Amino acid sequence: MSVSVGTTVRTVRAVSAEFAWRLLKPMLVFGAVLAALLLFIGGWLTAQHALWWILEFVFITSTIFFAVLAVITISILNRFKPEQTPTQKKAVADFADKLQRVADTIGISRFVLLFRIVREVVRPPEQSFIKQIAHDSTTLHTDFIKLQKQFESER
């Protein structure tokens, strides 16, 4: 079964985008809550004394910077993510869940996993990281049985 390079790249892009969204969503929520809290505190302080407007200016500038950065990041991520049918989206999410469980088991963080996947898109190796993990996890049982037989034969 031969798969075209374009299909492989689109698949890796879809999985990478899924991982990036999973990393980005909590950061966006935290940043939005923090920005709202700082703006509220700054607004309350400016009502107390006009000199607090200096600090409120910093809060407003930081919030605008965060919003612009979030919009740029989201638009880049949307351009990177390939078009998917609902079935493909579900399959990508399920695969990303499985890959995350395997990565958690072997001790790879989400950032490292995302970095390795994105690096493969930019500079493809001979065997992709995802294929290597999938192959290793499926052959692990048979390799362990072979290893057991080696120890059994030494007795």
Q: Shape from CA axes?
A: elongated
Low-confidence segments, ≥5 residues, pLDDT <50? Answer: none
Largest sheet: none
Number of strands: 0
Structural class call reads: mainly alpha
Total of domains: 1
Distance between the termini: 42 Å
Into which percentage range does the β-strand content fall? under 5%
Q: What integer is the average pLDDT?
A: 83
- Whole-angstrom Rg: 23 Å
Number of helices, where a helix is a run of at least 4 consecutive DSSP H or I residues? 5
Order of helices and strands: HHHHH
Proportion of residues in helical segments: over 70%
Short description:
With 155 residues, the chain is mainly alpha-helical.
Describe the protein.
This protein has 155 residues and is mainly alpha-helical. It has one domain. It contains 5 helices and no strands. It has helices at residues 5-48, 53-80, 86-106, 110-122, 129-153. Helix 1 runs antiparallel to helix 2 (53-80), helix 1 crosses helix 3 (86-106) and helix 1 packs across helix 4 (110-122). The longest helix is centred in the N-terminal third of the chain and has 44 residues, at 5-48. The two termini are 42 Å apart. 10% of the residues are buried.
Q: How are the elements arranged and paired?
A:
Layout: H1 5-48, H2 53-80, H3 86-106, H4 110-122, H5 129-153
Question: Which features does this protein show?
Answer:
155 residues; mainly alpha; 5 helices
